[in-house]
């Protein structure tokens, strides 16, 4: 954002704001019959089923503008919703973005936020078809709804896991959580001495994981090419253990996962040690990685066996076998889902 230029939102008004938001959007999907500009968007019929998901992001609860670049926030707001569409094994097509903002925000700040939104819309090939803008007295509120589509038989629910399925996760885990610890620590340092500049250069990977997560649509497209439908799937927003609990409950199964199979980046590990945290606890309970957790039938294993970014962390068991973590010393311990506490 250009520091010298600041236009008050009241000078352009709500209609001006809507014009500003809509000027860089174009519709790519044949199902997007009408986007921004009427009372509602119009989505055409297709032979596909639709998935719809909404997420709210609140300043002070989900993000802190003292260390979150507003462009990244725009990108992240779209990415986390696309991630929920991906978690259904569907392809995202449209998003609506609603924001409530205080007069603390300038037109330039809103423009920068939407630069991030539009960058994500381009990246995930979705149309921005509407939303709402309103005033807020207590910080920035962002609400995004994402719509996606898939053939009925392609949808992966949480409820489809069965005993002996293989449990898979993409990417690596715990990074976004450790990134958040670094950002929070540097903020405290900055608050106690504003002359100190945050030392973030040493942690580029994990702070990036926190500030600019990427929904794993690449994996969803690959699964289509392989003609593979996961028996169950979720995205990891609240932490691996917590998501596994959801699958166990919805599918009425148990799980056994192996400590030595859990994927972790070296920077995540090193930073956890630096913060006196148990790296495995960070991997199991750190939230916001937006990787995919899914289960596959054993017959599908050869299709993914050599995939460089899919890790096989365990298997589904009968419900009475519980939810266990097999440690490096081959001891089975009960999994605990601390999850990501919003309240
Ligand atoms: Mg989810």
UniProtKB/TrEMBL annotation:
Mg(2+) 3 binds at residues 39, 84, 235. This is Thiamine-monophosphate kinase. One of its GO terms (molecular function) is thiamine-phosphate kinase activity. It comes from the Bacteria. Pathway: Cofactor biosynthesis; thiamine diphosphate biosynthesis; thiamine diphosphate from thiamine phosphate: step 1/1. ATP binds at residues 114, 131-132, 158, 237. The gene is thiL. Coiled coil: none annotated. Substrate binds at residues 62, 288, 340. Mg(2+) 2 binds at residues 55, 84. Mg(2+) 5 binds at residue 238. Gene3D superfamilies: PurM-like C-terminal domain (3.90.650.10), PurM-like, N-terminal domain (3.30.1330.10). Keywords: ATP-binding, Kinase, Magnesium, Metal-binding, Nucleotide-binding, Thiamine biosynthesis, Transferase. Belongs to the thiamine-monophosphate kinase family. Its EC number is 2.7.4.16.
